[in-house]
Structure formats: structure tokens, C-alpha cells
Specification:
With 891 residues, the protein is an all-beta fold. The protein contains two helices and 78 strands. The strands form 16 sheets. Strands 32, 33, 35, 37, 38, 39, 40, 41, 42, 43, 44, 45 and 50 form a 13-stranded mixed sheet that branches. The longest helix has 7 residues. It starts with a strand and ends with a strand.
Length: 891
């Protein structure tokens, strides 16, 4: 410790001191000149004496660990508006002094003013004076100005605060500068609800402790009983979040001049489990995105707050987010990007919940409600109900994907729509055991709203009039009906067989479950149209009785329909097909005539056109055939929920292409220069037979579009088939299958080979035209052109198969020989039976014999007497007769 005395005027660090040296906290300082402590400068010394004519101006911070004395005449102490002066000892003054205070003066000892009466002045201008000891100013009669702090009043207008005022009013930035106890800085704490919280400082000797709390804008208050260096909160809750905590140390021994120390305040943040912070990313399953660093589980109440500076959650593909109650505050958002959110409690959304590409699963044990506007655009892709109670929809809700009532009850609130568009049609998954109550609206998108469509109702309480907004039940110009039912046993007024189509245009006529109906949407090239109807959804076992009365026109065909608000699988288990053939038949409207169209067939994994399939879309009507019998046949078509499927639905309203693995031949017939073709399929499953088989073959339903011919194969019993299951030919077999062709107009036509699948690469398909006596290998030249008159042609064409290329396919006509030209040579191939022989003659038109050869069996011979192109006659004399034919030779 040394004494330092100012020698000249100037800043604290720049003046001369005697003896010379750097001032320290243990130095005793005497000021007898004018000394300034600059702003931003902090000074700490031991005792301070301002001598006669001495002047100390404090613009920065001064800490006096000892006493301050001002005596004799004219010493001055001036504190500007930013100064902080703290004195651990006593402050004494006498005679004529001047003290000008505009900021903080804190005296932990006594303040004593002695000397002559009316000598000296204390000028206070918004200063803050705190005196912890006694105040003796009985000879100090005048204090100019005023003190605006929360203080007691002593003497005239000399206002000052005591130790309690100091505790309640001094801000943290002052505490940092005046601390006289070694107090470790308290740390802010962030904890989860129900966690324990510990605030502590290092122990200090000869002090008492008092922990305090500041709640919101309230004043600091003592915490009862917390009088040690450590304060523990055993069970944090949300009401404590934001509180500030500090500890006050008070002197218990005169061994130190320091009477009080206050720690800087620490803030407690209590986080609620399940509150989204978005600190790291938008990933729901990243713990650092959640309060308490914990991803919510099924029992966690989740809050998505308005945290604009952070990420909002986005649940991606393959991710499932779990929660109990889910609250989305205004300004915040939750997005599903093909992910799933499972809500076990209540949903409350004041922000944005985008579920247009994902799944929302309500899985509560108590009543759950989907409030109006719970989802962005009132739209959700997939909704799953896994409740043990009731989930109620209370506002408009549109589903674009799947609704699954896996358990519990879903009340639609009569405001649920299954939407349909170009890419997808929403449906109700039938695999769940839950119940759906209330009306549902189901849409059906038609990419071409032209001509006839075969519809069915997925509801139990719909009628013809439900379609009236989308079509005229009766054409307003022609008065022609546009809505039909189908009656397999229909007769005309004279009791004669008639077509099954029957006008069904009364608006109140009900739409029966499992029935199909034909609706004509008009003859204009209308834009795409979305049809929607509303009702109570069908579910569970459904059944209908069908008939085959052996009628000439209806031929045992019945128009039925998908009864469910979901696709169904014709090949699935769950069907009852008593006396029902295994084929189904779909209709596609024509493109130019509203009254016509074409049919495709499906059976046993095979479709005629390669696109219609075993998946029957919702609201789709289709034909089935009641098996033939010797008398009237009564059949049963039934189905249960296992036939329902979640296969995606194409928008052509009936088709989806799937790979066909069976060996097959698909041929087509069409008028030349026409786009639309009529297909027929021959395929080769195991154990197939040539005769009609109800589980493998599909009958031919004749097209109504006169621009499209009808192509079919014929069985030995003359059944017309669109799909024909045949025994697979062996490598040496030569099979001939008769084809039928029916056309409503004359014209040039083409029969072509469209597909040859899962057959050997050397497999040959020949089209035999018996009328023209031509055989063409379609495997090499796939289109055969010919002219045909209107009517039925059932003996003209055959298909013939062979794994070896035939030298001359005319052997299909069972002729004993065929003639062809090879490299200018005339070659005759014999087609005689084993052991059979004869004499072959070649002659010209004048009867001149050009060559004679003895031939037998399958012999191949060259005719040497023909030198020029022309018409020649060939004949063979056999034991049982003669065969001759005229041949054009081109050399």
C-alpha cells in the first residue's frame, strides 16, 4: 500500500502522481488538483481524500474500498449522468464542500457531514444515492435539487435510499461494477416441466444468504427459507418460465467493510414436453427440434407455436409423427409430404395444416372432432380412423386418396367428399372393421364425357335423379332416353325376345345395389366432366340373383356394377360366382357416335386389349354371363369386403395394364384406315381344352360401333369367344383354330398379329384365308389385307400354329400338293399320307404334258419342263381319285 497524490490537473491516467507509480486497489489517494475519470474508465483504490481546493470529476466508474474524506474548504466531487461511485467505508465531509450528483453514489458505510452551519452544498439532479450506514447531517442545512428515486427523506431535501432501496432498484449493469463479494455468475437454466432446477454460487465466509425471485414486471421478492449458497427447485412448471433468480449476500462480521453483494440474475426457461422449437431442421423425428430435446410419443401433447425465425415441421415419406393433442398456433404450420401423423387426442388448428400429400391417423380412446377448416384447402390425401370411440367430421372435408375406418366409428357429418381427377380417384378402403356413418359424396372423373358409360352406385340410397345435374335423362331434342337399366329376360309387347336395354328415366327410380346402368352423356365433344353422387356407403356382404333365360338377344348376359366406394378385384377371394362364368366385360364408348362403342373382355389373367384388368373401379358397371343350361339358370353373384382393393385407379374409368405372363396370341381386325380395332386372344394355360370352359374362356360381346368389326374364335361347339384358352401346341403339332368375323358394312379390312407373348422365338402364326386359298405367316408379315362383305364370316379364316416355318402354308387346305417358285425353279411339295403314292403331271393350257413324275408321301420334286412364266395345270392321280389345280408361275 502506498500514498498517491495528484500533482497537476488532468485525466486520471495522465496526471503526475507523487510518489510515481500505477494506482491500484490498495493505494490511498489524495487529490489536491482537478482530476477527471473519463467515461468508460473504471478505477479501484483504497482510501480517497479530496483535499482543500481538490476537485474530482467522475465521468466513468470509481470504486473506493476504504473511506472517502472531504475537509477544509472548497473540495468538490462531481458525478456526471453516467458515473457510478461506490464506497465500501465511510464518507465524511466538513466545512465548505460541493457535491454534485447526477448518477449513482453508493456508500456502504456512514455518511457524515460536520462543520460550520450553512457551509457547503449537495446538488442532486436525478442522482441515485444509497447509504447503508447512518446519516449525520445535522450541521448540513441545505441540499439543493431533489432525488427522484424510491428513498426515505432526511434533513431538508436531501433524499437518499437505504440498503433495501438499493436491493430493489439497482440494475444489473451497476451490480457488475460495484460487487464487493466474490460471487460466481449464475447461469440461465433451461429445463423441461417437472425437472429439478439448481442455482448456486461458491460459498463466501461471514455472510448471510437470501435468494430472491422476480416474476414478470414485479419487484424482487425474498424466497422464504432459501438462505444458503444453493437454491433448488424440485419440480419446475410452465408458470415459472421467465422468472429471474438471484442471491443477496449480507455482512455478518465487521471483518470486512463490504456490507452487501448481489448476484447477477439468472433466467429460468421451462419448456413444455412436446413443444416444437425447429432449432435444427423441419424433421419431426429430430430431437433437437423439440423442447426438452425429446421427440413426442403417443401420449405427448404437441404444440406447434409461432416461431417465425425457426423451421416448421414437415413429415416426409416413411416418417410417422406421434402425439396426443395437437395444437397449431396462428402463424405456424405443419406439412405432410407423404408422411403420417397419428393424433390420439384433440386437433386444434389456428395456423396451417397441409395434409394434401400424406396420411392423418385419428387413434383416440375418446371422442375426437375434425373441426371446420382443420386442413389447408379442406383437403387431405389419406384419412385413417383407428379409434375406440367416435371421430366426427364437423366441416367440409375432401379426401383425394384413401379413407380407412380401421376401428371405431367415423361420422362424416354429411360433408365428406371423395374427390376424383385426372390422376386419381379417392376411395374407402374396405379392409377395416370400423363403421362409417353419415352421407358421403363420391366423384367420378370422366376424361371424355361422350356417349354411353356404364355406372353403378356405391350407396344404398341413391336414385336416377342424382345424375340429372350431369346429363339429360331424356334428350330434349329427340326425346330419346339417355338412362337405361338392363333386363336379361326382356320381351317386347308381343312376348318376343328383345334386347335387354330398358329406359329408366324416372328421377325417383332407385339405383339397386350391384346393378349396372348405361348413361348417355351426349353427342358433343364435351370437356372432361366430374360426376358426383351422395349417399350412405355400402359395406360388407352384398349379393344379387341373376338369370339366363336362354334369350336370343341377351344370351344370359347381365349388367352388374361395383357396389362399393372402392375398387374391387375380380380375381380376389371373397366372391360368390354360383353359375357365373369367370369372365367380365367392359364397354368403351365410340368417339363419333354417341350410341355405339366396343367391348373388351377379361378372364383368368388375360384381357382382349391388354389394358382392361381384374380391377373394377368404383362406380363402374360391367357385364357378366350366367352359365348356359338346358333350361333357365338361376345364378348368384355375391361379394364381401375382401374383394375390395387399394390398387390405384386409372381414369379411363375401367382399365389398368398389368403384365400378362401366360403364352398368348393377340390378333386384331379393323377396317383399313380406321384407328379402332377389335382384338381377340388365344392363350395357352395348363390343362386347357378346345371346348368352351367357363373359368378360362370369355364369350364375344358384339360391338355396336359399325366402324369396328367383330373378331372372335370358334369352339368345336360353335361358341364365339373373345378370349380362347387352348391346349399349348407341341413342337410338331399343326393346330388350326377357326376364326369368325362379323361386320356391319363392306370394305377393305386388315387382320393383324398384335402381340405374341411368352412363346418360343420360332413360333409361327399363319392366317389361312380359305376363300382366297392364301396362307400368310403373320409372325413375318403381321398384316393381312382383304375385302369382306357385311355379315358373318365363320368358315373363311383360320389361325394355324407351328414351331417350324411351313414351306407352303396351303397345306392347311389339306391339298395333296402345293406349287411354288424358288430361284426360277418350279418346286412341288407333296402332302400325301404315309404309304400313299401317285403320278404327278404338269401341262400347259393346250394340254401338252410338260413333266411326269412318280411321287409319294411328303416328297419334294422339281418340275423341269416349265421354262416360262404363265398359267399351268398340275394334277396327281391317286389310287382313290385325281386332284388338279391351275397355278400361275412367275419365273
Amino acid at each position: 500500500m502506498q500514498a498517491q497524490t495528484s500533482q497537476n490537473d488532468g485525466n486520471w491516467n495522465d496526471i503526475s502522481w507523487s510518489p510515481a507509480g500505477v494506482l491500484s486497489s490498495s493505494d490511498n489517494v489524495t487529490i489536491n488538483t482537478t482530476v477527471t475519470i473519463p467515461s468508460g474508465t473504471s478505477v479501484e483504490i483504497n482510501d480517497l481524500h479530496i483535499a482543500q481546493n481538490g476537485k474530482l470529476i467522475v465521468n466513468g466508474n470509481l470504486k473506493v474500498n476504504g473511506d472517502v474524506s472531504m475537509d477544509n474548504n472548497s473540495p468538490e466531487l462531481i458525478l456526471d449522468s453516467n458515473a457510478i461511485v461506490t464506497v465500501l467505508g465511510n464518507f465524511s465531509a466538513s466545512n465548505k464542500i460541493n457535491i454534485d450528483i447526477s448518477s449513482y453514489l453508493i456508500i456502504q458505510g456512514d455518511f457524515i457531514k460536520k462543520g460550520s452551519n450553512n457551509q457547503g452544498e449537495i446538488s442532486v439532479d436525478n442522482g441515485k444515492i444509497y447509504i447503508f450506514g447512518t446519516v449525520d447531517v445535522d450541521q448540513f442545512s441545505s441540499c439543493g435539487g431533489s432525488y427522484s428515486g424510491t428513498t426515505a427523506t432526511e434533513g431538508d431535501d436531501c433524499d437518499y435510499g437505504n440498503i433495501d432501496d438499493f436491493v430493489n432498484n439497482v440494475p444489473p449493469e451497476v451490480l457488475e461494477l460495484i460487487s464487493c463479494f466474490p460471487i460466481k455468475e449464475l447461469e440461465d437454466q433451461t429445463v423441461c416441466t417437472n425437472d429439478a432446477v439448481t442455482f448456486s454460487i461458491d460459498p463466501v465466509t461471514n455472510v448471510s444468504y437470501q435468494w430472491q425471485v422476480k416474476i414478470g414486471a414485479n419487484s424482487w421478492g425474498n424466497i422464504t427459507g432459501e438462505t444458503s449458497e444453493t437454491y433448488i427447485l424440485t419440480n419446475a412448471n410452465l408458470s415459472l418460465s421467465g422468472n429471474k433468480y438471484r442471491v443477496i449476500l449480507k455482512q455478518t462480521s465487521t471483518a470486512t467493510k463490504c456490507k452487501i453483494g448481489i448476484s447477477l440474475a439468472a433466467t429460468l426457461t421451462v419448456e413444455k414436453l412436446g413443444e416444437w422449437t425447429g432449432n435444427t431442421s423441419s424433421d419431426w423425428n429430430t430431437a433437437s427440434n423439440w423442447a426438452c430435446n425429446t421427440v413426442p410419443i403417443a401420449t405427448t401433447d404437441v404444440l406447434i407455436p409461432n416461431v417465425l425465425t425457426n423451421y416448421y415441421p414437415n413429415i416426409l415419406t416413411g416418417i410417422t409423427g406421434l402425439c396426443n393433442n395437437l395444437t397449431i398456433q396462428a402463424g405456424s404450420s405443419l406439412v405432410l409430404t407423404q408422411g403420417t401423423i397419428q393424433i390420439n387426442g384433440l386437433l386444434s388448428n389456428s395456423g396451417s395444416f397441409d395434409a394434401q400429400a400424406g396420411t392423418v391417423n385419428f387413434a383416440g380412446t375418446n371422442l375426437q372432432t375434425i373441426a371446420a377448416s382443420s386442413f389447408l384447402n379442406d383437403k387431405i390425401e389419406n384419412l385413417s380412423i383407428n379409434s375406440s370411440a367416435v371421430v366426427t367430421n364437423a366441416g367440409s372435408l375432401n379426401i383425394s386418396g384413401t379413407l380407412l375406418a380401421n376401428s371405431g366409428t367415423f361420422n362424416t357429418g354429411d360433408a365428406l367428399t371423395l374427390i376424383s381427377n385426372l390422376t386419381q380417384t379417392a376411395f374407402i378402403d374396405g379392409s377395416g372393421s370400423g363403421t362409417i356413418t353419415g352421407n358421403v359424396t363420391m366423384q367420378r372423373y370422366l376424361d371424355v364425357a361422350f356417349g354411353y358409360k356404364y355406372f353403378s352406385s356405391p350407396f344404398s340410397n341413391t336414385s336416377v335423379g342424382d345424375f340429372n345435374p350431369y346429363m339429360d335423362l331424356v334428350d330434349p331434342v329427340t326425346s330419346f332416353p339417355n338412362f337405361y337399366t338392363y333386363d336379361e329376360n326382356r320381351e317386347d309387347t308381343d312376348g318376343n325376345d328383345a334386347t335387354g336395354w330398358k329406359a329408366y328415366t324416372t328421377s325417383t327410380n332407385s339405383l339397386a345395389i350391384l346393378k349396372g346402368y348405361a348413361l348417355n352423356f351426349g353427342d358433343t365433344s364435351a370437356p372432361p366432366k366430374t360426376v358426383e353422387i351422395t349417399g350412405t356407403v355400402n359395406n360388407g356382404n352384398q349379393q344379387i340373383t341373376l338369370y339366363n333365360h336362354g334369350r336370343f338377344y341377351t344370351q344370359g348376359f347381365n349388367l352388374v356394377g361395383n357396389p362399393y366406394p372402392s375398387p374391387i378385384d375380380w380375381d380376389a377371394t371373397g366372391w360368390t360366382k354360383t353359375d357365373i362364368d369367370n369372365a367380365i366385360y367392359f364397354f368403351t364408348a365410340g368417339s363419333t357416335n354417341q350410341y355405339t362403342g366396343t367391348y373388351t373382355s377379361y378372364v383368368d389373367g388375360i384381357s382382349t386389349d391388354g389394358s382392361s384388368s381384374h380391377i373394377i373401379p368404383s362406380m363402374q358397371g360391367f357385364f357378366v354371363h350366367v352359365s348356359d343350361g338346358t333350361s333357365m339358370v338361376t345364378a348368384t353373384l355375391g361379394l364381401t369386403n375382401p374383394v375390395r382393393t387399394d390398387n390405384s385407379i386409372p381414369q379411363e374409368f375401367l382399365k389398368v395394364r398389368e403384365p400378362e405372363k401366360a403364352a398368348l396370341i393377340r390378333i386384331t381386325a379393323a377396317f383399313e384406315n380406321e384407328v379402332n380395332t377389335d382384338p381377340a386372344v388365344l392363350y395357352f394355360p395348363h390343362f386347357a381344352e378346345l371346348s368352351f370352359e367357363k373359368d378360362k374362356d370369355a364369350l364375344k360381346l358384339m360391338n355396336t360401333d359399325i366402324r369396328v368389326p367383330n373378331l372372335y374364335s370358334l369352339t368345336p361347339e360353335n361358341k364365339k369367344l373373345s378370349i380362347n384358352a387352348l391346349p399349348k401346341p407341341g413342337s410338331s403339332d399343326l393346330k388350326k383354330i377357326p376364326l369368325g368375323l362379323k361386320t356391319e358394312q363392306d370394305g377393305w379390312m386388315l387382320i393383324g398379329l398384335k402381340d405374341l407373348e411368352n412363346l418360343p422365338t420360332n413360333f409361327n402364326v399363319y392366317l389361312i384365308d380359305s376363300e382366297k386359298r392364301i396362307g400368310q405367316n403373320l409372325s413375318i408379315k403381321p398384316l393381312y389385307r382383304f375385302y369382306a362383305k357385311s355379315g358373318e364370316h365363320e368358315s373363311r379364316f383360320h389361325l394355324m400354329f407351328s414351331e417350324t416355318e411351313l414351306s407352303d402354308p396351303t397345306i392347311a387346305f389339306d391339298e395333296p400338293f402345293s406349287v411354288r417358285t424358288v430361284d426360277g425353279k418350279v418346286i412341288v411339295s407333296l402332302n400325301l399320307e404315309s404309304g400313299q403314292s401317285g403320278v404327278l403331271l404338269a401341262s400347259n393350257v393346250t394340254g401338252q404334258i410338260l413333266d411326269r413324275k412318280n411321287v409319294s408321301e411328303k416328297e419334294i420334286v422339281e418340275i423341269e419342263g416349265i421354262k416360262n412364266s404363265g398359267v399351268y395345270f398340275f394334277s396327281i392321280n391317286l389310287k382313290d381319285g385325281m386332284f388338279s389345280k391351275k397355278v400361275l408361275i412367275q419365273k
